[in-house]
Amino acid sequence: xxxxxxxxxxxxxxxxxxxxxxxxxxxxxxxxxxxxxxxxxxxxxxxxxxxxxxxxxxxxxxxxxxxxxxxxxxxxxxxxxxxxxxxxxxxxxxxxxxxxxxxxxxxxxxxxxxxxxxxxxxxxxxxxxxxxxxxxxxxxxxxxxxxxxxxxxxxxxxxxxxxxxxxxxxxxxxxxxxxxxxxxxxxxxxxxxxxxxxxxxxxxxxxxxxxxxxxxxxxxxxxx
Length: 224
Ligand code: 6GU
What we know:
CATH architecture of the largest domain: 3-Layer(aba) Sandwich
Structural class: alpha/beta
Bound molecules: 6-chloroguanine
Distance between the termini: 34 Å
Helix content: 25-40%
Number of strands: 9
């Protein structure tokens, strides 16, 4: 999989993709992530990429020309499954969308900033608009990092234990059960005995019960 991220603050993203699981995924060539500086596609002397909103009002708007130039440069080289715009008025990100996107070959993520992008960018180039929650961030970069992380960890071979994504919270509309590790007793608090029983079926049953209990308590909306 290849992910191209377009941003006017690329430095925000560089360190994120250079570490941990995301670094390993790239080193092992499961994914390639490229961060593009929108300013490299500006046409003006001062490399401006934004301007005042027509009609007035506070806040700058990202202009269509640098974005169009960047997108067309990328799209001339390969075809993309989706061109995703990260925006607080997009569809709320859900695990099922992440699952689908993890099957893509090539994705473009466009990060908004200020008051967002010229509407014509959305009309002409964007195939999917995604929000990561009902709160406002100062830019789409953190949202793009969240989306890319959620996608990349599902690409086959990226996780150490390939089954571990299957037991994630949300993967079957249930929250994940509690987990424990050593020591067996901490200040009098013991690990549930069933987990040490070695009885696979009982352990699975306990975990399922705990998932249901946790979901009912914390996210009854998921049980419907
Ligand atoms: Cl995708 N962008 C911004 N700026 N804020 C957000 C968001 C995206 N998702 C939630 N809040």
